[in-house]
Prior knowledge:
Shape of chain B: elongated
Number of domains of chain B: 2
Structural class of chain B: alpha/beta
CATH class of the largest domain in chain A: Alpha Beta
CATH architecture of the largest domain in chain B: 3-Layer(aba) Sandwich
Number of strands of chain B: 11
CATH class of the largest domain in chain B: Alpha Beta
Distance between the termini of chain A: 65 Å
Helix content of chain B: 25-40%
Largest interface: A-B, 19 and 20 residues
Largest sheet of chain B: 6 strands, mixed
CATH superfamily of the largest domain in chain B: Periplasmic binding protein-like II
Radius of gyration of chain A: 27 Å
CATH topology of the largest domain in chain A: BirA Bifunctional Protein, domain 2
Number of helices of chain A: 13
Distance between the termini of chain B: 38 Å
Strand order of the largest sheet of chain A: 1-5-6-12-11-10-7-9-8
CATH superfamily of the largest domain in chain A: Bira Bifunctional Protein, Domain 2
CATH topology of the largest domain in chain B: D-Maltodextrin-Binding Protein, domain 2
Mean pLDDT of chain A: 93
Oligomer: heterodimer
Number of strands of chain A: 15
Low-confidence stretches of chain A: none
Helix content of chain A: 25-40%
Amino acid sequence: MGNNRFYTPDGFSDVLPGICEFKREAEAKLRDLFSLNGYSEIETPGIEYTDIYMDKEYVDPQGLYKLCDQKGRLICIRYDGTIPASRFAATIYKDEEPPLRLCYIENMYRYNEVGGGKQSEFTQAGVELMGSAGSPADAEVIALAIESALEIGVKDLQISIGQTKLFEGFMKGLNIDKETSDKIRNAIDQKDVVMLEKTASDLGLSDEDKETLLMFSESQGTYELIEDMRNRISNETAVAALDNLKEILDILDDYGYLKYVSIDLGLIGSDYYTGMLFKGFTYEVGFPIIAGGRYDNVVGAFGRDMEAVGFCLGLSLAIIALIRQGMDPQVSKPEVIIGYDIAIEGARKAAIAMKQQMVAEGTRVVLDTQGYTQEALEKYADDNGIETCIYINETKEEA
Amino acid sequence: MLTIALSKGRLADQAIELLEKAGYDCTAAKEKSRKLILEDEKQGLRFILAKPADVPTYVEYGAADIGVVGKDTLLEEGRQLYEVIDLGFGKCRMCVCGPKELKGKLDTIPNKRVSTKYPNITRAYFEDYKRESVEIIKLHGSIELAPLIGLSDVIVDIVETGRTLFENGLDILDTVAEISARVVVNKVSMKMKASEIKPMIEALKKQVDIMNNEKKEA
């Protein structure tokens, strides 16, 4: 017993000075950015009923940190930002006129594979734009995602945008049933071309439809790709999805962000998404740092029909990427150290007054607590890179 | 710089041969030494030799951009990866095997005890596909021993020629999956290093097609 007192649990770790300082600064920048763009920050409880996640199977129940409350009801630690924000919008904010612009910066908790090396606790910063259905809302959220990444120093950024309705429309147009289309969706998600080719032959698709299906596994582009798909797919749902993608690109062009984005047909998501969805990538981490999209049915599941679109930035993951890309977060050192000779009456008071004044002026300053002599204090300051060393061994005669 | 994770052993040799045919100089990878990382700066390639079961992990985390690994390992590990090419070599089958007397009678034993190196594949096969409960015993090698000595009723394992099985009075009772070597790619690398990865995939695909055509003709 008690042997675990030296360690943190699997998937949890301390955030070290320096990195923690950088993280807090990044959070402050993101908070400002969200606020300046009209998003109000909310803090949802750290613990929710598991029902908010499990009723509609939004998450794999195995991923939830589950507990019981005193009445035996199943509760869980905050798993994501979107579901609680949706609950909030549909209940507490039910009479609020749309659109709602909400944001959060919180730690999330997810069980991961033991020994898998993934963190179970991580910080996400995200926004939700609720009650706004069209491409302008989609584009606003993507633009804000780009700005968030740039704001914290991610320079090499690529955003891939997909549209789940494009795939759905294509399947509908070919009269493919849900079970088969789920299988195809899975194969596209893994770029399993072998499986796609086999399915296309099994279904007896025409050569052109087969080619289109395979494009879902590999095609990326911008306007030309949208036009190409227009010539291939005539289903209404799919055409509307293409219009949506084109409009999003047009708006992002107005922002000047076209250079960061491309259309990726393979990004088709799960049933959770109901329109465009996107992911953001950078170098040196094997996972996307940004994920977002349109999920028009989620708020409705909590009793208020309202479209919604949002994104979240994995701040912990982005910081790992930045460090691997060469950022070296430094611990802020004191600029001044003040010592005093305790034998001199009034020296301590003078030292304290000096420290208080410096803090008020915004100087990082420490007061010696080790009782160093002047010589020892100077050595300490020297060794620790503290620029200014002040030692008080005489007090001015007070007038 | 592309990092390629190879499964130590025959699969690595075959993968290197294929890469050479596809126009990539793999002198660095063929170097006979105990180095774990073999780098060819000029070509921008870096090879790592890993235990096969670890290859999907290296690739999922992006520590390696590309991996060459058997479908058996991919099924067992269940990682989030792009699986882009079936290389067609390293072919074998994942099978349920047991005493030959059980042939055709696999379903008659309730609550089977199954020995395997592949507990995840075994669970998925019996629970999701056969809809039955089994007791899984994880072993690390010589799986055929288990039913002979009474540790388990059947086994789930890779079958290449089946010689070990037949010589020990065992037989194949059912096929779980067809296995061959696959090229897998990290999902972020596919975006961020597309200009290096896509041509490599195309060149490899071309060679695989040539290989498959040769096989058909032979």
